[in-house]
Design goal:
It contains 5 helices and 2 strands; from the N terminus they run αααββαα. The chain is of the alpha+beta class. It has 2 domains: 31 residues, no CATH class; 82 residues, Rossmann fold. A two-stranded antiparallel ribbon has the order 1-2. The model has no long low-confidence stretch (mean pLDDT 88).
Length: 157
């Protein structure tokens, strides 16, 4: 028998639809997991180091004219944890889902295995606190917003 209750992934869409249909309001909804994945204040040292490296590599690839690639993190060793950044062809990564191996989940489905813990532990190791000002608020980068020399001819389209 099917439940009339929407799944946890469907409830934001369902609620947004009811608000729009019943009240006539324009709505926008998102999944709560997006907040967790963008929470810089809880990033590990590994998160921060890898994010910096991926961003730097992306700029380097663009400056070299490398198109249709994206920087990816490749684990080269687990003990001790080692990683590197490599370009991956977009056709191999875009619109492809990478799932957690079944061997990472306990048989009862309510926890992770030792194999998963071994894989995940280096990724959450260390702290990367936000730099703070004297007022206790986070300091953010201020961009210089300097124009760069144009490299492409004017498009005559």
């Amino acid at each position: 028998m099917r439940s009339a209750t929407p799944s946890s992934a469907a409830w934001p869409r369902t609620l947004a639809g009811k608000v729009k249909d019943t009240l006539g309001y324009k709505v926008h909804w998102t999944l709560p997991d997006y907040l967790q994945r963008s929470a810089r204040h809880v990033a590990s040292k590994t998160d921060w180091e890898q994010a910096q490296a991926v961003g730097k590599a992306a700029v380097q690839y663009a400056l070299k004219g490398m198109n249709s690639v994206m920087p990816v993190i490749v684990r080269s060793a687990s003990a001790p944890y080692r990683w590197k950044i490599e370009p991956a062809p977009l056709h191999k990564v875009a619109n492809h889902e990478k799932t957690m191996p079944a061997s990472f989940l306990r048989k009862d489905g309510y926890g992770i295995t030792a194999k998963a813990r071994e894989y995940l532990e280096p990724l959450i190791r260390g702290e990367a606190p936000l730099p703070q000002g004297r007022d206790g608020l986070p300091k953010y980068v201020t961009l210089k917003n300097l124009a760069v020399k144009k490299k492409l001819p004017v498009w005559e389209g």
